[in-house]
Amino acid sequence: MRVWAVANQKGGVGKTTTAVTLGGLLAERKQRVLLLDLDPHGSMTSYFGYDPDTLSQSSFNLFAEQEPDAQAINALLLSTPCEGLTLLPSSMALATVERRAAAEGMGLKVSRALAKVWDQFDYVLIDSPPVLGALMINALAASERLLVPVQTEFLALKGLERMIRTISMVTQSLRKDLNYTIIPTMFDRRTQASVGALRELRNTYPNTIWAAMIPVDTRIRDASRNGVPLSQYSADSRGAAAYRSLLKSLLSQQDQR
Amino acid sequence: MRVWAVANQKGGVGKTTTAVTLGGLLAERKQRVLLLDLDPHGSMTSYFGYDPDTLSQSSFNLFAEQEPDAQAINALLLSTPCEGLTLLPSSMALATVERRAAAEGMGLKVSRALAKVWDQFDYVLIDSPPVLGALMINALAASERLLVPVQTEFLALKGLERMIRTISMVTQSLRKDLNYTIIPTMFDRRTQASVGALRELRNTYPNTIWAAMIPVDTRIRDASRNGVPLSQYSADSRGAAAYRSLLKSLLSQQDQR
Ligand SMILES: Nc1ncnc2c1ncn2[C@@H]1O[C@H](COP(=O)(O)OP(=O)(O)OP(=O)(O)O)[C@@H](O)[C@H]1O
Ligand SMILES: Nc1ncnc2c1ncn2[C@@H]1O[C@H](COP(=O)(O)OP(=O)(O)OP(=O)(O)O)[C@@H](O)[C@H]1O
Ligand SMILES: [Mg+2]
Ligand SMILES: [Mg+2]
């Protein structure tokens, strides 16, 4: 089982979109995929038509004092319209996890839970909230690879330096090496700000940035309105093609390691 | 002194942009304006060229056990390139406030601090992080009016229901009435998803939505790259015109109350 986290403290950069789209593409390759929503705001959960406010159980259950066993974790799972793609939803209760962040072992709750279902899934994609806290730390601690979507524009660029510093801070305290890839998103070749930002990104992070980028594509919003992953909604859209080539590059790196 | 908070749990909807742009327009009207950054990620602080990671003091100081007096609060203030516009910056340390959220009176730290400088400013605009927690509660508790930017697209619409529920939850526990306005942002009349979302928004929230909307405008990103409010960077841009008419409508409502 491979665990990939999608994280960035900047809001609205395409974290949920990236987790859902890559999850859909992995399911098309006949992989058994778990989408784990750790964002109290629950965009990934609402994407598939579930309401994070009314769900009686969710990823919040992973943080209980009495950690759930494999059976209890399975009881949390929900289906999606995409074969091979399973959702472990979030709920608003997750917002209260932060208060207990200082408690013993709180940073490892998610990785311990995932270890119990390691034989049921080939991939786990974790969506995290746009804020540095216990939920993001759990996502980083549980994963072997981190995907950092970055909008190709100025404010998002400024926030990236901070995200990279956060990654090294967290990996030092977890004493693990976390391999990360920067993914330029919402690139609009018609605007100077976007073109300039992409050039700046490539100059600043030559070794950790993905060579291509995800273009602006309105089909992405349409897919979320229809509650299906992008490649299922519109297989030949520009967005789907870009995410396919991203997945190919991520998988080829994986084989080399 | 009037205090307006800008908040939405959904990321990337234009919160920072709205706070900075309205602040700039109020300063042009010769109002003394304080921009207060309560987002640990510090987009508003970086907007004006300051680095939230290296600032030794910030809005974090407002949450100290020993509450700062007016003089100590003044020592936190930074200037911006716009006359009449002052910044109280954020820093990463703010991310640790959540852990102490349960402590006595933690929800009122900001409103108590602002009460100490009530005679120095005409308006305070508070930028908050995209997450429900102590920092957002402080922003809501300290303000008399709440602005809720919402991107005109599906995922942001889903999140709005939750934000409205949060507002009524918070106002009940604070025993105050919080007047809120929904502001449609990043509207792109060329895409069906945007047009449909705006129609849905107007149907669902007829009494609390602003009658017009903020269009997509690349000058907004250019302004943030140059570290000046939009109306200073490009007075006759579509975005500046839209924010001007928003401010006019907010001020006319205010006079009636
Ligand atoms: N390449 C793209 N082209 C056009 N729209 C996009 C693209 N990627 C994402 N979007 C849209 O932008 C919005 C923000 O994306 P998304 O919700 O995935 O970001 P996020 O980083 O998860 O946000 P949050 O910080 O709130 O969790 C969504 O409405 C999504 O449909
Ligand atoms: N009307 C608009 N047209 C085009 N771009 C916009 C518009 N409003 C905001 N933006 C851009 O969209 C991005 C997100 O805006 P902003 O950072 O203000 O959102 P936010 O809600 O504060 O995000 P966060 O959740 O990270 O705090 C910024 O790069 C900003 O320049
Ligand atoms: Mg998201
Ligand atoms: Mg912001």
What does this structure look like?
With 257 residues, the first copy, chain A, is an alpha/beta fold. The first copy, chain A, contains 10 helices and 7 strands. Chain A has a 7-stranded mixed β-sheet with strand order 3-4-2-5-1-6-7, sandwiched between helices. In chain A, helix 1 crosses helix 10. The first copy, chain A, is globular and about 50 Å long. The relative contact order of chain A is 0.19. The interface between A and B is large, with 42 and 42 residues. Bound molecules: adenosine-5'-triphosphate (ATP) (2 copies) and magnesium ion (MG) (2 copies).
List the helices and strands and how they pair.
2 copies of one chain form a homodimer.
Chain A: E1 2-6, H1 15-28, E2 33-37, H2 43-47, H3 70-74, E3 78-79, E4 85-88, H4 109-116, E5 123-127, H5 134-142, E6 145-151, H6 154-174, E7 179-185, H7 192-204, H8 218-226, H9 230-233, H10 238-256
Parallel strand pairs in A: 1-5, 1-6, 2-4, 2-5, 6-7
Antiparallel strand pairs in A: 3-4
One magnesium ion (MG) binds next to α1 of chain A.
